[in-house]
Design a protein that fits this description.
The chain is α/β, with parallel strands linked by helices. It has helices spanning 10-21, 33-40, 51-60, 70-76, 97-109, 126-140, 161-166, 178-187, 203-234, 238-246, 267-280, 286-310, 337-347, 360-367, 379-383, 403-409, 424-430, 443-446, and strands at 2-6, 25-29, 64-67, 79-82, 114-118, 147-151, 171-174, 198-201, 318-322, 351-355, 373-375, 388-391, 414-417, 433-435. The chain binds uridine-5'-diphosphate-xylopyranose. Uridine-5'-diphosphate-xylopyranose binds at residues 154-158, 214, 217, 221, 255-257, 259, 262-264, 266-267, 326-327.
Length: 447
């Protein structure tokens, strides 16, 4: 089938590569000419395991192409997927400018029947709005061309985006058109082989499913962070509690890891957007407000701990930071907890020596060159002469370091672990002062 995908970010590019991999002919349209040039040369603009190989194959067998020409991209295919960004506005609502720009281009350039598919995470009602916008524009131009729509949200996780997309848990198709449903069933057939994964519903429910899934997962995390904070003050160990509750299949082991808060391009934005959407319809979403506020507090926790332990004046002090990306296997620092650590330390006059296996470039792009930031090539280098180590991301490389070396490199054997990687009893044996999240040791009591 011929498919055009607007937006070559995580969602668009991964979906395009996956579709081309199973034989669909895919045109990717992006307004960023530099990005398009890089993609044509086979260069993935971000770190995502497995994607470069798929991109290369798609280019080699000419099933995947990239363009900045909206007219050509629209005329190339019957199915037009919208995978552009929907950033947060200052009021928390989703900014639909890019989505509606694509809708306007479609109306301007389409000359035959089209099916427009929203894959970006959008407020409930957006697919209908896009369809109405295109119909109105066609009507205003006096052109009568059939146009239909579907919502088809994406559930991929950064770092495992290719695998998630190739083996989805479910394929949600939200459309009022039986023909669109039938055609999209065919399109997704290669991904629907072992058991039935396609769930057909109306577009509003489809859009709401995506937002609800992200809100539920974010709620689990904020809930566990709240429990971790309680565990800390009452002297319980949240890691034991986590295993204890996860064994109940109604709760499950996934997404109950406490830590230094959730980040990334989805959870923070989508929780805010759903809360805003509810408010627009006159509903105060109090759980979502608590989920968001708890997360904001949690992201500040590591920096606060450093200050409580080492003082609010960090002049002359250096803090080592392991992990800059918002989670492992990505170079993405959007809304990353590490940013709160870096900025917190700087605001107190401290210096940072940071290491991340992938996000050094992303960090430089955000903060530029500064005297109080050294990004090192190796994790050990970051520790040299530092007054403490703060762990923000659970990259595998941090799970089992040579602790004697860590101790000898740090000027002070002090670790603040935002991901609960180590065993507090082991740390005590080694003579390392160690603070996890919710591990029964309140910093106030120890300080
Ligand atoms: C998320 C959803 O999982 C995905 O389905 C959706 O399509 C997009 O948003 P992503 O943002 O890539 O994916 O990452 P995810 O693995 O879900 O992690 C999000 C954040 O939650 C990370 O900062 C992670 O560290 C944090 N997290 C996750 C926890 O703090 N505890 C957990 O138990 C799980």
């Amino acid at each position: 089938m011929n498919i055009t995908i607007f937006g070559s970010g995580y969602v668009g590019l991964v979906q395009a590569a996956i579709f081309a991999d199973v034989g669909h002919r895919v045109v990717c349209m992006d307004i960023d000419a530099e990005r398009v040039d890089r993609l044509r040369a086979g260069e993935v603009p971000f770190f995502e395991p497995g994607l470069a190989g798929l991109l290369k194959n798609g280019l080699d067998n000419q099933l995947l192409s990239f363009t900045t020409d909206a007219k050509a991209a629209i005329q190339a295919s019957e199915f037009l997927f919208i995978c552009v960004g929907t950033p947060s506005r200052p009021d928390g609502g989703a900014d639909l400018t890019y989505v509606m720009d694509v809708a306007s281009s479609i109306a301007r350039y389409m000359t035959s029947r089209k099916v427009v598919v929203t894959k970006s995470t959008v407020p409930v009602g957006t697919t209908d709005k896009v369809l109405a916008h295109i119909k109105q524009a066609l009507h205003d131009q006096g052109r009568d061309i059939p146009i239909e729509a579907a919502s088809n949200p994406e559930f991929l996780k950064e770092g495992s985006a290719v695998a998630d997309c190739q083996s989805p848990d479910r394929i949600i198709i939200g459309t009022r058109s039986p023909k669109v449903l039938e055609d999209m069933r065919r399109m997704y057939q290669p991904f629907n082989r072992n058991h039935e994964k396609i769930m057909a519903m109306d577009p509003l429910s489809s859009e709401m499913t995506k937002l609800t899934a992200n809100a539920m997962l974010a709620t689990k995390i904020s809930f566990m962070n709240e429990m971790a904070n309680i565990a800390e003050v009452v002297g319980a160990d949240i890691e034991s509690v986590r295993r204890g509750i996860g064994s109940d299949p109604r709760i499950g082991y996934q997404f109950i890891y406490p830590g230094c808060g959730y980040g990334g391009s989805c959870f923070p934005k989508d929780v805010r957007a759903l809360k805003f959407l509810a408010g627009e319809h006159g509903h105060r979403a109090e759980i979502l407000t608590a989920v968001h506020d708890t997360n904001q507090r949690q992201k500040n926790k590591l920096a606060e701990r450093v200050m409580t332990r080492l003082g609010f004046d960090l002049t002359g002090k250096t803090i080592a930071v392991w992990g800059l990306s918002f989670k492992p296997n990505t170079d993405d620092m959007r809304e990353a907890p590490s940013r709160y650590v870096l900025e917190g330390i700087w605001s107190c006059g401290g210096k940072v020596r940071a290491y991340d296996p992938q996000a050094a470039e992303a960090c430089r792009a955000i903060y530029g060159e500064r005297d109080d930031l050294v990004i090192t090539e190796h994790k050990e280098e970051a520790l040299e002469g530092a007054d403490a180590l703060v762990i923000c991301t659970e990259w595998k490389a941090f799970w089992s370091p040579d602790f004697e070396q860590v101790k000898s490199l740090l000027s002070n054997p002090l670790i603040f672990d935002g991901r609960n990687l180590y065993n507090p009893a082991h740390m005590e044996e080694l003579g390392i002062e160690y603070y996890g999240i919710g591990r029964g040791r309140s910093l106030n009591a120890a300080a």
